[in-house]
Amino acid sequence: MLRGRSRRGRGPSYTAVDDDPLDAAQERRVRAVLALGGVPQADLPDGVQQVRLRLLERAASGREAPRDVSAWVAVVASNLAMDWHRAKRRQERIGERLASLRPAQAPSGEETSVLSLAVARGLDELPDAQRQVVVLRFYADLPVRSIAEQLGVPEGTVKSRLHTAVRALRTRLHEDEVV
């Protein structure tokens, strides 16, 4: 089960909300970021609920709404995935989750499967910070500026992490003779 950071003593009290704070596209993005971050399919609903809760807590506390809610929820989901990894010290591959996120009509040739598994293996081996920016940039399709704003780091740091991660993935794919 996913556990978020505790806000003891600061938790807002609020009444039931009629509208879901996440629209369908944002929920799909949250599920994709969590899955690509290594969270098992069975824990995805808990992760989506954690993101909803954080969004509601933010609104109830009177803090300013995020400029880009889609980017904000993607970063929160990414942070939850990193927390999950730290808590569980999980090392298994995420190839199955990558395959489950592909559209049903996508070609499922042997080469595509081998490449997907090799990329998943490479992602598993990246440090958390590098995996996070790769997932946010290439799978959640966030621009570097948005990633930097949401993570609270300079754009150069995001670019550096991306460069290092892509270089490591490329090396891995060549070592495995996939490309």
Question: Can you characterise this structure?
Answer:
This protein is mostly helical. 64% of the residues lie in helices and 0% in strands. It has 8 helices and no strands. Helix 2 packs across helix 3. The longest helix is centred in the last third of the chain and has 21 residues. The protein is globular and about 50 Å long. It starts with 23 loop residues before the first helix and ends with a helix. The relative contact order is 0.13.
Condensed summary:
The protein is mostly helical and 179 residues long. The chain has helices spanning 24-36, 44-60, 69-88, 95-101, 110-125, 128-139, 144-151, 155-175. The chain has eight helices and no strands.
Percent of residues in helices comes to: 55-70%
Q: Characterize the overall form.
A: globular
Number of strands: 0
Radius of gyration: 17 Å
- Quaternary structure state of the chains depicted: single chain
| Proportion in β-strands | under 5%
Count of helix runs: 8
Order of helices and strands: HHHHHHHH
Which structural class is indicated by helix and strand composition? mainly alpha
Main sheet properties: none
Distance between the first and last residues' Cα: 37 Å
Topology:
Elements: H1 24-36, H2 44-60, H3 69-88, H4 95-101, H5 110-125, H6 128-139, H7 144-151, H8 155-175
Helix pairs in contact: 1-2, 1-3, 2-3, 3-6, 4-5, 5-8, 6-8, 7-8
